[in-house]
Design brief:
324 residues; alpha/beta; Rossmann fold; 5 strands; 8% strand; globular; binds thiamine diphosphate; binds magnesium ion
Length: 324
């Protein structure tokens, strides 16, 4: 399916915003103002954006500890996210959640999640209510390769098939679960997460996670199936993360030159720019203008976050439980 110019520009802006947000955090974190652990998403942008360009605010996603890219792709407010990561009262979760707990239900972003394998059961639960409402909404669990060995993920996949739920299990195979490669950790090797999902009885396919167009198209088919009552699907996309598992990871487990090579040959933004210019779909100047706009947004987001107050200690017990 041919995407319109507006859709292409929108997708590029979202991918660029993620890259700029994460690259800026990488530069800011050593300054010591950001509390807690941070896991950056640079290198994986085409997956989050290729998925979310198929969704509306009424559809839901679940996320992981590496969730900033998922939030931005789903349309969560970038300044609110930055303030949240700095632990400020103006943050999306009033500065009490931080990097690994950003959520915005108004955008269908059900939350970053520190529990590996925690997202797929939540997305499956959302899909039960979507099926009951009958309005055609879809839930997507964005999960890492590490989560594919987790029991709750198997249970979620099984119940999704048994109840024919509108849920998609999306595995981002970025080459590592912390320091361990799927070739070692996943029984059956690298592609086994797709074959496992197929074993539960759902359509399962894999692809190149550095190619926005491939992610978009394969997700589009799965979303269409789910919206039309065709039940769950599984997708696996390969990529490499450009930074460590967490900020501060010495990355001794990576081959010399691996990251430089990935930045050269597996950069989804470069791939996107090359494809749309070769096919004369977008002008270089249009994308350069987006780059400049995004750089200003991220500068402002950091400045405003640093200037914002911390939450008042008296608010520590607020928002602990939701009232039903
Ligand atoms: C249930 C659970 N077990 C272990 C951990 C520790 N842990 C945090 S991130 C991570 C690796 C996850 O790898 P993957 O799913 O591939 O995601 P990636 O970091 O590559 O994005 C592990 C094991 C955890 N947070 N939760
Ligand atoms: Mg991984």
């Amino acid at each position: 399916m041919q995407l319109s110019r507006e859709q292409l520009l929108h997708a590029y802006e979202r991918m660029k915003t993620i890259r700029e947000f994460e690259d800026r955090l990488h530069a800011e974190i050593p300054k010591g103002l950001i509390p807690g652990f941070t896991h950056l998403y640079s290198g994986q942008e085409a997956i989050a954006v290729g998925v979310c360009e198929n969704l509306t605010d009424d559809d839901a996603i679940t996320s992981t500890h590496r969730g900033h890219g998922h939030c931005i792709a789903k349309g969560v407010d970038v300044k609110g996210m930055m303030a949240e990561i700095y632990g400020r009262a103006t943050g999306l979760c009033k500065g009490k959640g931080g990097s690994m707990h950003i959520a915005d239900f108004s955008k269908g972003m059900l939350g970053a999640n520190g529990i590996v394998g925690g997202g797929p059961p939540l997305a499956t639960g959302a899909a039960i209510s979507f099926r009951n409402r009958g309005k055609g909404e879809v839930a997507v669990a964005l999960a890492g390769d590490g989560s594919c060995n987790s029991g709750p993920v198997f249970e979620a996949m099984n119940i999704a098939v048994m109840l024919n739920l509108p849920v998609i299990f999306m595995f981002e195979n970025n080459g590592y679960s912390e320091q361990t490669a799927p070739a070692y950790a996943v029984g059956g090797g690298k592609t086994d997460m797709t074959r496992r999902a197929a074993g539960f009885g759902m359509p399962a396919t894999s692809g190149d996670g550095t190619d926005f167009f491939e992610v978009y198209e394969k997700t589009r088919e799965a979303v269409e199936r789910a919206r039309n009552g065709g039940g769950p699907s599984s997708l696996e996309f390969s990529c490499l993360r450009f930074f460590g598992h967490f900020e501060g990871d010495p990355q001794k487990y990576r081959a010399d030159g691996e990251v430089a090579d990935a930045r050269e040959n597996m950069d989804c933004l470069k791939n996107f720019r090359a494809k749309v210019t070769e096919a004369a779909l977008l002008e270089v100047a249009e994308m350069d203008a987006i780059d400049a706009k995004v750089a200003i947004l991220i500068d402002e987001a950091v400045e405003e976050a640093i200037a914002a107050p911390f939450p008042d200690p008296s608010a520590v017990l607020e928002d602990v439980y939701i009232s039903y």
